Amino acid sequence: MPRGRHGWPGGASGQVCPRRIHRFLEPCLLLLLHHQQAHGYELLDKLKRLGFGEDQIELSTVYRILRNLEERGFAVSHWDTGHVGPARRRYDITDAGDRYLAQWVEDLQETDRLLHRFLDRYNAHMEVHQ
C-alpha cells in the first residue's frame, strides 16, 4: 500500500492529506498552552514530545494555527520583551479555549472508542481468515 510522507497510507498519489494532522494540532497546541503559556518555538519543541517528528510540523504552520485560535477567541497573545533578543509573541489559552479543548477531548475519546472497536473486529476477522 502506498505510504504518504508521514508513513500513513495515502490515496492514489500516495500522499496523505496534510490537513488531517494539521487539524489535530489544534487540540495539541491548546493542551500545551493549558500547561503554560509559550511562544511558537517552545510549542514546536513540545509537539515533538507528543510524538510529532522533526519534519512533520513547520513553524509557520504552528503560528498559522495559533493566529487562527486567537482570532476565534481560544487563545490570546502578548509581546514578551523581557529577555535578550527580539521580542517574541507568547500565547496563552482562554476560558473559551479551555472549553473548546474539552470538546476536542470528548470527540477524541469517542473516536478512540470507535477505532478500537473497528480494529478489534478487523483483527478478529484476520485471525479467522489466515
Shape: elongated
Write out the strand line-up for the largest beta sheet, numbering strands in chain order. 1-3-2
Proportion of strand residues: 5-15%
Uncertain spans: 1-17
- Sequence of secondary-structure elements: HEHHEEH
Mean pLDDT: 86
Largest sheet: 3 strands, antiparallel
The total of helices stands at 4
Oligomer: single chain
Radius of gyration: 18 Å
Helix residue percentage: 55-70%
What would you call the structural class?
A: mainly alpha
Count of extended strands: 3
**Terminal Cα span:** 19 Å
List keywords for this structure.
mainly alpha; 58% helix; 4 helices; elongated; 3-stranded antiparallel β-sheet; 130 residues
Helix-strand blueprint:
Layout: H1 18-35, E1 38-39, H2 40-49, H3 59-71, E2 75-80, E3 88-93, H4 95-128
Antiparallel strand pairs: 1-3, 2-3
Helix pairs in contact: 1-3, 1-4, 2-3
